[in-house]
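Quick one: structure for this chain?
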Amino acid sequence: MVLNVPLFAQEPRVTAAAQAALTLMRDWFGPLNRPTGAVPVRLPWLAPARDQQTERLVIDGIVRDYWTDQSVPLSEFGEIVVAYVSAQAIHQQLEGSNFETVRFFGGSVPFPLRSVLLSPPVADPRPRVWRFDDPGHMLTREMARGVRALQTIERYVGWPAMLETLSALRAAGPSQLSAESFGEQLSQIRGTDMRFLINECFRPDATYDYAVAALKSEPGAPGLMETTVTIVRAGTGRFALEDDGESDAAMPMMVRFADGSEFRDLFDGAAPSATMVYSAKSAAVSAIVDPDAMLLLDVNRDNNAIVRDAPTSKLGIRLAMHWLAWLQNAMLSYTALV
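Got it. Here's what it folds into:
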């Protein structure tokens, strides 16, 4: 495979990223089964070691070439799959070194932020960012929503099930790259009918918005506190395996109590509202819908939790101090020019 890029000083980085991406694609989806050609990638002229834009663009180019059949143009769902697989490959290949990078002077001068890690290690509690602002990743609004839908489904069923499903679709050919075929294939692999959930996630007019409406703890049985949590579905989207049914509870929630204990539960995402009652030795200090950020389609995560006496976020303080240091340097640089 030939990469049509201006190599110069970036040649070792480009070669290493391309070889690693090719190996990863073969491990995931098998051999390419066709002659390889040139992969055009437009690289930035200034790329410090901590700026991983070069690697992201190379990986994206390799993934796109691996999934593209020159004789059949990709459908919109096919473009969504390519963007999703590209983001997945970038996260895995650049794990622990893919920092957020802000750019100045028309995007020519990069400044990596070590405090914002886009692809943290798996054990890191911070969520992985689903997309990047490189030219190769500029998507339409509908396609961006589709990528979030696939990543949401992945968080629900797991990456092994997603990989097996996508491998089967790729082997079947470009004509099978549709949301309907994806839902049918995933249902066969999981042994559970996933078609309703897939259709809801890809329904363009579906708006997901789950909220904790109330959290109340009162004395109950002797020595116990009774906690009532009320959850509402404010949007039209329904995260459930069927239209309605208690047995198909798919949306997660978590209640944390004052003694440090916590309880995780599921509720029916198709119901307009749900009321959960718990008995514990202490009062509840927080209730959170979707505590692990599984539903990336949720349009408003500000109402996903009620927290009593929330502790100060160390990460928030660190980011604020980082921004203040940057602002100070920017102001000093400006005063030198006037």
